[in-house]
Structure formats: C-alpha cells, structure tokens
C-alpha cells in the first residue's frame, strides 16, 4: 500500500511540475509562413503578452497581421490555443472555421477567449454569427485578405464575431 501511494504521489508531483513549467513558458502555437508543416498547425496552451484593457472600436489594424492566436478553455481545465486567420468587416473582428475544430467546440461551450494580436492579449467573448448575409460578407472580407484561401459555402462556415469588452 505504501509503495502504491509513493508511486501515485510521485506521478502527481511530476504532473504539477510539468504544468507549472508549461504555464511559465506558455507553450504557444507557432507562427509559420508554411502552414502546411505539422509543427505550425500544432496547438499550444497559454498565451502570454501585454493585456489590453481599453475598448477597441476599430479592428482594422489587424488587416496588416497575417495570423492571430486564440486561446479557449477545454473541458479538461487546460487552455487550448491555435494560430488562425482573421477578418474585419464593418470595424468588427471575426474568426472563422469550416471544419470541425476543437477550438470551435470549446468556444461554443464557453465563448470567453483570449486573443493574441501581435504581442498584446485581448480578453473577449465570441458570438456565433447565424445571419447568412453577415457570414457571406465576412467570408468575402477574409478572402480579400487571404486570396489563396478557398472560400467555403456560407452553410459550411462557422463564423464568430469578437464582441466589445
């Protein structure tokens, strides 16, 4: 019994040390020019940066930024962060997905996210867009920013609007 308790205790302490190390380093997803690489598509954990607390009325500054990072909360009490593309439509920031992604399921369950844009962190809430006209306009804006992107059908796309603080 004592031996089992020591083994379980050792594993628990190792897990705590591992989580503390990952928390300290952040373990963010990578930004890469070649998104086809597996290491560029691998998710991360915590996002680190300077927290922005002022409201943002115009997100057009993101037009010059290729990728942003979004951190969601998993049901396992660990964050899940990915690098994604974004688009601005009528001064609002949007993120989209057209395949079943874990981060999308996380957002649907809990819409509170952390966005990392440049070196800055924005704590925001995402709202699922259901209006097909708004979705189509966002997809068009995203295609204009990323002409190499294959635009999905409006019905296949999942679109989220970043809500004001």
Question: What do you see in this structure?
Answer:
The relative contact order is 0.15. The chain starts with a helix and ends with a strand. Strand 4 (86-89) and strand 5 (92-97) form a beta hairpin. The protein has four helices and eight strands. Strands 1, 2, 3, 4, 5, 6, 7 and 8 form an eight-stranded mixed sheet that branches. The protein has helices at 2-25, 38-41, 102-109, 132-145; strands at 50-52, 68-73, 79-84, 86-89, 92-97, 112-117, 120-128, 158-162. It is an alpha+beta fold and 165 residues long.
Structural class: alpha+beta
Low-confidence stretches: none
Mean pLDDT: 86
User: What is the assigned CATH homologous superfamily?
Assistant: Electron Transport, Fmn-binding Protein, Chain A
Assess the beta-strand content as a share of residues: 25-35%
CATH overall fold name: Pnp Oxidase, Chain A
Shape: elongated
Number of strands: 8
Helix content, binned percent: 25-40%
Short summary of the structure?
By secondary structure, the chain is α+β, with helices and mostly antiparallel strands.
Task: Considering the chains and any ligands shown, give keywords for the structure.
165 residues; alpha+beta; Pnp Oxidase, Chain A; 8-stranded mixed β-sheet; 8 strands; 30% helix; elongated
Task: Summarize the topology.
Layout (H helix, E strand, L loop, with lengths): L1 H24 L12 H4 L8 E3 L15 E6 L5 E6 L1 E4 L2 E6 L4 H8 L2 E6 L2 E9 L3 H14 L12 E5 L3
Parallel strand pairs: 1-7
Antiparallel strand pairs: 2-3, 2-6, 4-5, 5-8, 6-7, 7-8
